[in-house]
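Researcher: Here's the sequence for the chain we discussed earlier.
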Amino acid sequence: MTEANDGTRAGALQLTAAATVVVGVLPYIVLKIIWLAGGTLGVENPVVIEDGGFFALNLLTFCMDLVALLVALALVRPWGRRIPAGLILLPMWVATGLLVPISIQAPLGALAAVLSGAPVIPGNLVAGWVYLVVYTGFVCQGLGLTIAFIHHARHRWPLVFATRVEDGPPSPTRELQVFVARGTVLVAGILAILNLSWVLGSPLGLPADVIAGRSFMFYLGYGVNAAVAIAAAAGLSIIIGRRSGRPLWVPVTLAWIGSGAMFGWSMWLMLVVLTPNGFDTGGLGSAGVVSLVSLFTLLTGLVAGLTGAFALAERVRS
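Model: Thanks. This is the structure I predict for it:
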């Protein structure tokens, strides 16, 4: 009876998580379909609808949310455990990296805007209610996908939740892992210091208009950038070092979220910068030093994610 009750509660939690994702995804997908079809619902400047770059980014984000919906269904259904691991892990890694920072920044940014009376996101590309709908949806997606993925992972890869960092046989590629991890941690540390310097008011590498327009969201954004770099470095160091008695899932979570956020957000910024569109306002993405930092952040997040994945794959196989 206890097992049956536990199964019922787990099933209800899975369904709730999937429903939360659906609630977050559907309004976003509807908006994207309207814009892709040429509609101007919520668009303050209708001219951007005719812009090719705007269309391309809308098509990309539409496909990304469609993938999120499919992954959410796979995570809560038995057939999802038969899907190759990479088809679950890769989109979830990117999704977690994108959505976890949003889930932190959106509520805090909205609260700051209410208290100060300033707009959360400056500019007039789309109406204010669009930001409310979209970012609320992102928070719902983040919560739903995270809960569903944890349940899926606990059943599919129980080793991660049942062992300690120091457990496991010797790794035949340990020397290479240590070498790559040390280089990754070094670069991640430099990136964290740079982001923290901007949070503390340093003008290093920032154009004059950005320095003059620094707001709460500026400091919050770069503070999160520093935090995810530190998380990725700390998690990877513990996993590869194998000298800790703490549960393995703790550093895995740090490295997963940190590396995913570094890769996902830097990739998005570079796509916005390289694709002429209404989102690229000539601000942060146009600053040379900031763009260089974004490139190294992307590469560091990718290497950190791959190194951690190889180390975990060895553990699971052994």
